Amino acid sequence: MRITIFSILLAMTTACDRPATWTGSLESLLASQPERFGTVTENPDKYRVQIIYAQIDRDADNKPYFRTHVYRVDPGEYFYPASTVKLPTAALALEKLNRLDLPGLDRDTPMLTGSAADFQTEARVDETSPTGLPSVGHYIRKILLVSDNDAFNRLYEFIGQQELNESLRRRGFYDTRIIHRLESFLNQEQNQWTNPVQFFNGDELVYSQDAVRSKASYAGLRPELLGQAEIVDDERLERPKDFSTKNAYALLDQHNVIRNLMFPDSVRAGKRFGLSEDDYRFLYRYMSMYPGESDIDAYRDKERYPDGYVKFLMFGGDAEEIPSHIRIFNKVGDAYGFLTDAAYIVDFKNNIEFILSATIYTNENQTFNDDNYEYEETGLPFLKNLGQAIYEVELQRERQYQPDLGRFRFPDRD
Question: Whole-structure pTM over 0.90, yes or no?
Fold first, then answer.
């Protein structure tokens, strides 16, 4: 059995001639694999690397226990979270539907977004939707399958900036702020405003929500300066970029959101998301689905959307195919030279499960908005090799009880 497993690993990567072994710490693991990690570990401060790895063991009743290992984790060391903020936003959008609890209102109810100001845009159709209409559920599909930015913006507008951030704080995510739309040029004040939204069941108006302005500011309390220069309106400005008005989502918060969603029973009731079992199954399906498996025709182009398109850990974001017995429940982000992935990874064939979260910064010239980042040369290979190294460790790790992973399987697919 081991020979077969390691044959699979060798086919997945040529980065290392020997599988990684665990001696108790991430630091020693990275140091023992210089051919995989030497470039980064020689100067981890430069790359602002942070890693969290949770080993999961089960008892005889299948209850999970977590042993967490960290490398350079510091909530005070800022990194731009990019699209990773979409996952808690998706969960809170489902929670808001549940809280409204209105007849005819669910995740598939058509959601039409209006405009109450000249800086806002409407969304009344969605060509990728089977019905041609947008909905919370379809926006979440688009977020989890291909990390669609507009889909996130519409959920941000549905929830509202203040409700979104206060909901996160109530769950203990104090090192997170989600305060602006993505791929948008709105200023801080404009992002405090969110659009009017209406839900229709046929011609019947099910729920209407006016434009809302956040009464509080969630921006950073002090400047968060990075880099040496920034391109603004095609002009190079020789000064650091201030990220204090940008989103923030600390790696520990990302890791704990994954744990909260995948293992809600391991979290105190008051800290869980207000989701139904059907909501969890919906999220699990699309967090772990590959674009080509979906029923969205636009995502079936394997050349544009390979299996590994939004799977940085283990598969580097570009793997054409991923072994069918491996599923990754995750959310990635990449922007301004930062690459981040937080994932619950399972291997149904070998009964392996673990949570791995990591971020890395690749901006050699310390200039923002010049589209000159070392994603392909440094960042993605690091995350790919890290995921594979931890997977190799997990293959060798002894477990007293084998996990029952049925909660995360979909018989029509896996």
Answer: yes
Cβ(89)–Cβ(152) under 8 Å? yes
The C-alpha angle 358, 168, 72, rounded to 5 degrees, equals 25
Identify the bridge partners of residue 67 per DSSP, sorted by sequence position.
55
Give the pLDDT score at 8: 46
User: Is residue 50 within 8 Å of residue 359, measured between CB atoms?
Assistant: yes
Confidence band, pLDDT 50/70/90 cuts, at residue 19: confident
Whether 9 contacts 18, CB under 8 Å: no
**Residues 107-119, mean pLDDT to the nearest whole number:** 98
Mean pLDDT of 146-172: 98
Q: Rounded CA gap, 281 and 407, in Å?
A: 8
- Rounded distance between C-alpha atoms, residue 377 and residue 384, angstroms: 12
Q: Each residue of 378-396: b (16+ CB within 10 Å) or e? A: bbbbbbbbbbbbbbbbbbe
Nearest 5°: the CA angle 370, 375, 379 is 135
